[in-house]
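ok new one. same drill as before - structure tokens go in, u give me an amino acid for every spot. 200 of them this time. try not to just spam alanines like last time pls lmao
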């Protein structure tokens, strides 16, 4: 059973990353204009850390749904979750995949705020998959107008079709891959920012 690949990213996260980058460039300009070379060398790392951290948290994370399963790219690691490993799909706080061993939360697909309840429409309920219904209603995070709901809808559609066709493989497990370069960059920039503040 073949499926089209779908990628989900937070538009809000990308906007915030651009805004933060612009602000941090301005901050670096202000540091350069009001400090000598030593001051710049000490203080420039803090805005660089802030910009990098915003990119790592809000721009880079994403969710990929394809024929092999769901790939969840978060801040410091990536989860690959085969279809057969998924036991439950939820959207209370964000897209969350429950397996036998763990719950995997997608940073890139947060649920809307509590005010999102007002935005749930009849179409959302009509389009809802069986596994997303709570009685006759759905969570705000399951609205297909939200990123969590859109990602959950595509994931549930594929998973339920495989389940109903008896094609979910037994014994599959989610695997986690760490991002050593991201972790190292955060550690180095954090250390430089801290030392710079102490030495200035």
């Amino acid at each position: 059973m073949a499926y089209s690949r779908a990628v989900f990213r937070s538009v809000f996260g990308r906007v915030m990353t651009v805004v933060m980058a612009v602000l941090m460039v301005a901050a670096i300009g202000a540091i350069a204009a009001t400090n000598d070379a030593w001051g710049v060398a000490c203080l420039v790392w803090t805005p660089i850390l802030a910009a990098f951290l915003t990119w790592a948290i809000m721009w880079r994370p994403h969710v990929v749904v394809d024929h092999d399963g769901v790939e969840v790219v978060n801040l410091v690691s990536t989860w690959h979750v085969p279809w057969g490993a998924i036991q439950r799909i939820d959207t209370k706080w964000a897209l969350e995949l429950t397996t036998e061993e763990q719950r995997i939360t997608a940073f890139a697909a947060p649920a809307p705020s509590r005010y999102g309840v007002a935005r749930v429409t009849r179409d959302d309920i009509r389009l809802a998959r069986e596994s997303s219904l709570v009685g006759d209603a759905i969570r705000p995070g399951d609205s297909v107008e939200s990123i969590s709901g859109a990602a959950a809808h595509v994931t549930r559609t594929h998973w339920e079709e495989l389940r109903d066709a008896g094609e979910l493989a037994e014994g599959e497990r989610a695997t986690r891959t760490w991002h050593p370069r991201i972790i190292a960059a955060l550690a180095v920039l954090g250390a430089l920012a801290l030392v710079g503040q102490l030495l200035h």
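Residues 34 and 176 are 45 Å apart (CA to CA). and btw The radius of gyration is 21 Å.
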